[in-house]
Amino acid sequence: MSASITSSASESSLSSYAAPPSIEVVNKNNKNEEEHQDIMSSVSTESTNTNDGGILSADDASAKFIVQRLKELYRNHVVNAEKQYHLHFNFSLPTDGEIKESEFDAAPMVLLIGQYSTGKTTFLNHLLGEDFPGMHIGPEPTTDKFMALFHSGDKDDTTNTTADAKTIKNAGFRKKNKNNTDDDASFKTTPSIVTDDIRAAGRLVKGNTLTVTPNLPFSSLSQFGSAFLNHFVGSASTSPLLKRLTFIDTPGVLSGEKQRLNRTYDFGQVAKWFADRSDLILLLFDAHKLDISDEFKHVIDVIRHHNDDKIRCVLNKADCVTREQLVRVYGSLMWSMGKIFDSPEVVRVYTGSYWNGNLINNDFEKMFTKDEKLLVRELIDLPRCAAERKVNQMVNRIRLVKVHICILGTIRNMTPRFFGKKRSREQILAELDVILDNVRVEFNLSKGDMPDAKEFAANLNKFHDFSVFPPINRSLIKKLDSLVEKDIPEIVSQADVVSSETLMSQVDEKIEQPSAKEEVAVVKETTAAVDKATKADANVLGVLGRIITFLLLLVVSVESVYYISFGKPAYSLPELKSAYSKLFDTAKNNPKVAEIKSQITSKIQTTSLAPTSSVPVSGTAKQRSPLSSLPTKSGVSFEKKDTQPLKNPSSDGKAEL
User: Fold this and answer.
1) Average pLDDT over residues 634-654
2) Helix (H, G, I), strand (E, B), or coil: what is residue 30?
3) Alpha-carbon distance 250 to 268, whole Å?
4) Contact criterion met (CB below 8 Å) for 291 and 3
5) N- or C-end of the chain: fewer Cβ atoms within 10 A?
6) Residue 110, SS3?
7) Sheet-wide strand order for 146-151
8) Which neighbouring-strand residues pair with 246?
9) In the prediction, which pLDDT does 602 show?
10) What distance in Å separates the CA atoms of residue 356 and residue 137, rounded to the nearest whole number?
11) Would you say 281 and 113 are in contact if contact means Cβ atoms under 8 Å apart?
12) What pTM was computed for the model?
């Protein structure tokens, strides 16, 4: 139906849309340059300010704390249970095999899947704003490898800094002018048609090398062997967006037997490996080729398991159809997605034209720009929410591990030890639905966590003897419940504390540690204030010194004038002595002075003749004589033992008791 709807549009506008790569590179900045810069400037701003202070660094500290604690929790408690019950590569977990260290620390990953010539590579070129190594764009199926786009780690790209590099970039194969000459004028005006690989900055890394690179999360891909690794390549680029995200460009899904026979590896399983570890999955559709092949539907069904919440749809090349055709194409896409996902929820669809050329039809330009901004914003928010998604995935994995432990332990208890194992195995597989229901009721498991009976039976068929599974370990089940109910919530709460402490420390650093310019300004201001105060003090001291000097000179001059005039000082020593004696005599003869003197004398006499006051001795205090402490020959102490008063004292000092 969709093919008939859009056949006329494809014949009229596809030729103008699918321009050759050289012309597309030349006309790179012809499409609404200002709007494109406004949209992508936010990406550059967010990605280049990764290590700045503020909320971003606080979130990074919190995310690192969460990831580190989740790694410890997984290594200490979860992975051993997975190995003990043979869950790796045998049963349906969110990711096959154990989670590697590099997968915990990896940047968020975005997977692009679509049929051939839907604009996946052009979409990445438009999003990154530059070419990347290994990029090849054309109307035919050009991308024949899985390509991982990641940041090269170089601060500055030195590929195009030298003069030779600039010459290579601007030279290439140039067209001759009318006179069939190759002068400088034609060199400046004729556009270069250098290949994309020469223009791109970065390097290509082969698949086997990617699997042994420690800081990249691709080590588990070695399970697919050299047949796949020879079709896997890494493109290390210097785009700012790649500092925070990793993109996976995939070959186009082919139709018919070519998808199955022409490829020496299982495309669906490889796509599922990337989908399980991706944070966002983009399904790209061409407005001219909206029919979904059976092979593409199979790939979507394979990657959907545990990944429904990650999938988004992108309706690309929407500017090549008219209004009526776009409405029909959009409705057809939603109808097809509804049949594939078999759910009432609608998948989010971003509509636009994601390439570096001008829009062919500007009818929905505002809608295209709005959807592009929303898509870019979702990509920018992926690193900020990466820790929360890892927590979500870990909780989901622990719940599934617990369910598998309960089921496999029950099957182990139903298996005899010695005889009748084959008959018991057949009976278990036949009655697996009943067994799953009984296990769910016995262990109070959620129905949404229970596996599909047919899929679980297919996984059990891999084992010929069910006695290889350990019996039910209830202490392990309690530990897994504790991880979900106590340990992981505690990690999240501690991460909030780490984030707030990081933010407060940055505020303190900004307050306590000013910048170099601020320090220089403060030093200059302080020096100027000290110099000013020193000058003011010097001025004050100078004025006071002048006044004192003037007064001393005035006194000396007056004394000198008096001495010169009368031949002597103003007062001699005998004159001063007689003056003081007269003053004392006058004071003695004064009646008030004599009266005060007599009062003082009488007070002194009364004080000296007054009897001393006896201090009463408390009745409880025991008086001791000086002889009481002396030792005697007979051992009798002279201390008084009777405190009664003496009676009839005699003159010789004796007393009668």
Assistant:
1) 46
2) coil
3) 11
4) yes
5) C
6) strand
7) 202-206, 232-237, 146-151, 246-249, 109-114, 280-286, 311-316, 349-351
8) 109
9) 75
10) 12
11) yes
12) 0.65
- Chain centre distance of CA 50: 9
Q: For residue 138, what are the CA distances in angstroms to 14, 120, 135, 248, 401?
A: 12, 11, 10, 18, 46
User: Which carries the bigger pLDDT value, residue 527 or residue 513?
Assistant: 527
Q: Nearest CA to 91 among 435, 408, 424, 472? A: 408
Q: What is the DSSP string of 169-230?
A: HH-SSPPP-TTS---HHHHHHSPP---HHHHS-EEEEEHHHHHT-TTSS-GGGGGGHHHHHT
What distance separates the 2 farthest-apart alpha carbons in the chain?
Answer: 164
Which residue, 232, 247, 30, 243, is CA-closest to 120? 247
Please report which confidence band the pLDDT of residue 77 belongs to, taking 50, 70 and 90 as the band edges.
very high
For the chain, the 3-state helix, strand and coil shares in percent, each to the nearest 5, are 60, 5, 35
Do β-strands 232-237 and 202-206 pair in parallel, antiparallel, or remain unpaired? antiparallel
Cβ atoms of 219 and 273 within 8 Å: the answer is no
Of the candidates 321, 378, 384, which has an alpha carbon nearest to the alpha carbon of residue 127?
378
* Alpha carbons 544 and 536: distance in angstroms, whole number: 13
What's the mean per-residue pLDDT of the chain? 74
- Report strand pairing: 246-249 vs 109-114: parallel
∠ Cα 495 500 501 (to 5°): 95
CB 317 within 8 A of CB 378: no
User: What is the pLDDT at residue 430?
Assistant: 92
CB-CB contact of 445 with 482 (8 Å): no
Nearest to 357 by CA among 21, 19, 31, 40: 31
Give yes or no for a contact between 74 and 395, defined as CB atoms under 8 angstroms apart. Answer: no
Cα(193)–Cα(57) distance, integer angstroms:
43
pLDDT at 487 over 90: yes
Q: Label residue 350 exposed, middle or buried (CB < 10 Å: 0-12, 13-18, 19+).
A: buried
Q: Taking a C-beta distance cutoff of 8 angstroms, is the pair 436, 456 a contact?
A: yes
Residue type present at position 535: K
- How far CA 160 is from CA of 165, 202, 494, 580, in Å, comes to 5, 10, 46, 107
Contact partners, residue 193, CB within 8 Å, separation at least 6: 22, 25, 26, 172, 173, 174
Q: What are the residues whose beta carbons fall under 8 Å from the beta carbon of 315, sequence distance 6 or more?
A: 285, 287, 329, 330, 333, 349, 350, 351, 352
Q: What are 514-523's pLDDT values in tens digits?
A: 556 666 676 6
Q: Please name every residue paired with 281 in a beta bridge, in sequence order, or none if there are none.
A: 111, 311
Q: Which two tokens stand for residue 309?
A: 């919440």
Q: Residue 652 is encoded by which pair of tokens?
A: 């010789």
* Interacting residues of 118 by C-beta distance below 8 A, sequence separation 6+: 252, 284, 285, 286, 289, 316, 317
Predicted local confidence at residue 508, as pLDDT: 56
Which residues, other chains included, contact 472 with Cβ-Cβ below 8 Å and sequence gap of 6+? 405, 406, 409, 410, 412, 413
**E strands in 277-432:** 280-286, 311-316, 349-351
Give the alpha-carbon dihedral of 299, 303, 308, 312, to 10 degrees. Answer: -60
